[in-house]
Amino acid sequence: xxxxxxxxxxxxxxxxxxxxxxxxxxxxxxxxxxxxxxxxxxxxxxxxxxxxxxxxxxxxxxxxxxxxxxxxxxxxxxxxxxxxxxxxxxxxxxxxxxxxxxxxxxxxxxxxxxxxxxxxxxxxxxxxxxxxxxxxxxxxxxxxxxxxxxxxxxxxxxxxxxxxxxxxxxxxxxxxxxxxxxxxxxxxxxxxxxxxxxxxxxxxxxxxxxxxxxxxxxxxxxxxxxxxxxxxxxxxxxxxxxxxxxxxxxxxxxxxxxxxxxxxxxxxxxxxxxxxxxxxxxxxxxxxxxxxxxxxxxxxxxxxxxxxxxxxxxxxxxxxxxxxxxxxxxxxxxxxxxxxxxxxxxxxxxxxxxxxxxxxxxxxxxxxxxxxxxxxxxxxxxxxxxxxxxxxx
Length: 393
Hints:
Strand content: over 45%
């Protein structure tokens, strides 16, 4: 097929032959009339050229003036492609409907690309965008990136700057978070080392600054351990970046009470399932079963994925598992096991400690059992604290 741009293909064009003795005059008349011929070639009997199909009839009076005979060689383009289907109106209508639907779908937001942000900021950002109208299914013409960015900068104090850009059916968000600065950010900053919690000093290893405590000394939270202010024998004073390890014995106490009349929450086996179809920001219920009472809710979302790209089409499934409170009498051994399991979970929250000793106390009465665990641990209680002076105060 001859080369032609998309618009020419849509309008349709034809390849014709003009036979006669003086085709040069014909070409001059066509040029003067603005016929727009292209790919003109000389033949043994005349010339060959291409013209927009709707202009071909205008060539006849010009050819007649030059005593030329016109012949259509080939026809190209969309109008001639659809001619075989002119009796199939449904096909042509369907084609135009398809093109119309594609155009209509392109007017909506399909994808929202968010940057990597902290876990605390992400839900706030998603909710703020939702409240600002940036959601799958929103009209792209209503997404004013600059206005939304200004609004989010005011609503989200944790960001330094943000931009919201629309590319076709995709909205891209880019931002910079405000970094929480450590008061001691470099070795050139003067600082002290203080106690993060109370304890009895085991050892103090000052690698910068001057130690203020010794083994066996009791300290409270916030007490000075290593000073960054050092006074020399000649009377001069320097402010240094104090740092080091200060190990101390610290105490922890955990407790749990379990009654013999024990109440546990368990699933009864009854489950109620509801499904919703998420389509371009709209949720379409696929049936609904009302549920009342205590339950455990589990929500799963299956998103349509094409070649690694998530489309705004998904199936949301909600399963509500009925729960019942079961009351039963348990033995002392069962109560003790439950209490110890609870205390172990509490102990897991204490990281970075070395347990030196542990004392467990079990107290029973008519109603239940109480387990108390006291531990003595070894841990580094050193915490750097910026020295504020002059303009820093």
